[in-house]
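Because discrete structure vocabularies remain unfamiliar, we first show an illustrative case, written as a sequence plus integers encoding its fold.
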Amino acid sequence: KIYSSSFPKEFQGCISDFCDPRTLTDCLWEELLKEDLVWGAFGCHPHFARYYSESQERNLLQALRHPKAVAFGEMGLDYSYKCTTPVPEQHKVFERQLQLAVSLKKPLVIHCREADEDLLNIMKKFVPSDYKIHRHCFTGSYPVIEPLLKHFPNMSVGFTAVLTYSSAWEARDALKQIPLERIIVETDAPYFLPRQVPKSLCQYAHPGLALHTVREIARVKDQPLSHTLATLRENTSRLYNL
């Protein structure tokens, strides 16, 4: 309710990402999916992979049976200092989730931080090249994403409001080189408040603010906002089978 005024009339829904299986024992995710314009993705982020267990996997698979569960993830690898899960454990949990996702025919939501080469090698082993994949929250340079785009032609790249930051020149350069038909927009809420949004209006990012990122994509691509928005919606519907 606090943020309702910051949702634009163009808002037509979002996908909420539940990436810590420890939280699936409460009913919050089920209540959220009762909302008409909310769908869900479920997985285990590498930050939480150290806690992965058989019981958590059962809860994860149960959530993925929900009719509004549209993807498996966020999962992946994170070699940054922020991730305390040992690398071997990350690999084990990532590989297990890839196998489960492919068996369930669920699109993938992929997290990667400072682990691009290992991520690609593991995905080549477990994921068909024509699989539907969302490379989540990309902020890097084009040479980093290019090998993934070439090997997985049905991969889409997610951009956040980081694009609106003056420091994000590498991400904007990558955006220029990636076809609009392979781009989707996301928020990574509550992080990455768009540069144009004062904290007096919103302290945290949320899906209603994604239009700011769409405007930046349209500007960088030199495309009309209406065309950009329509294409991004179509991309999202195709990726997530909505």
Observations:
- The two ends are 26 Å apart (CA to CA).
- Strands lie at 14-18, 38-42, 69-78, 108-113, 133-135, 155-159, 183-185.
- The helical segments are 28-32, 54-64, 87-104, 116-126, 142-151, 169-177, 210-221, 225-240.
